Amino acid sequence: MTILGRTAQNLFWLSRYIERAENMARLLEVGYRMSLTARREGGPSEHLVSMMQAAEVDEAFNAKYEVADIASVAQFMLFDEDNFSSVRSCLKAARTNARSVRTALTLDMWESLNAAWLEFAQMRPRDVTGPRLQEALQWVKQVSHQFRGALMGTILRDEGYAFATMGGYLERADNTARILDMKYYVLLPRANLVGGDVDIQQWTLILRAASAHRSYRHVYHDRYKAWNIADYLILRSEMPRSLAFCFSNINRTLDMLTEVHGARSDAHMAADEARAMLEGNSMEKIFAYGLHEFLTEFIARNNRVTDALSESYNFY
């Protein structure tokens, strides 16, 4: 028996919102770290604005705030309910979706999510400054890890699992592409900085945002290089936040749905198109095409997978 479209939708978006909360914390962390290292290449606000441009929330921020300083950006990215991608908005939406499908969740999944929301509700924005901002961002990542551990360790490998995991992987692929695309927004006005110390420093911070700065050295045994870093986060299927890893798991999970429903759907075809951008590709081709152009096209194809899932499996 297949699950209802609304249940599939709620499980999909529950997992996606938890992943998005983590990803917003990762983006804010890299924007914050870049702003602390800003010198002649641009002031702190420029890096924070670049981060919001990558997340596509800069227009909403500009409509409400006058200055892009660390305090206002942290407030907007963490606590502002007018920002539908803020950590508060994501945790609230995840909990709302979870309550709608409470019987489809395991006790561990519900308790990890509910505890996260209750703890976050106790945070006061004025206290999350300086070192405490870093602590808050780390807490958001840990909450996401705890929920994901509960999901992977306790839920049945059925349709519910398929929709929940796909939501997470689609959101993660989107975010990894956006973190990489921050390089475009930061360095675009100053081509003379490409390849310099500032360039390498920013690439290193992007690796840190993806929790990949240590594992990178195990794979490449070399200093941080833009070419290798982009390769690691796009094409290396063993790296768990890479685009290739995400779509390997998305396609595998879609195959589970094929077994249940007896046929491939439009979602499979949309995922195949996104994965085709990765399989057999190389950094030589991607950089020749343009990294920003490649990432923009990938994000669009990634979004089409979500649209196709909604249509194929009767999301409301």
From TrEMBL:
Q: Per its record, how is this protein called by name?
A: Uncharacterized conserved protein, Alpha-E superfamily
Give the domain of life.
Answer: Bacteria
InterPro entries recorded:
ATP-dep_Glu-Cys_Ligase-2 (IPR051680), DUF403 (IPR007296)
Ranges for domain DUF403 come to 4-313
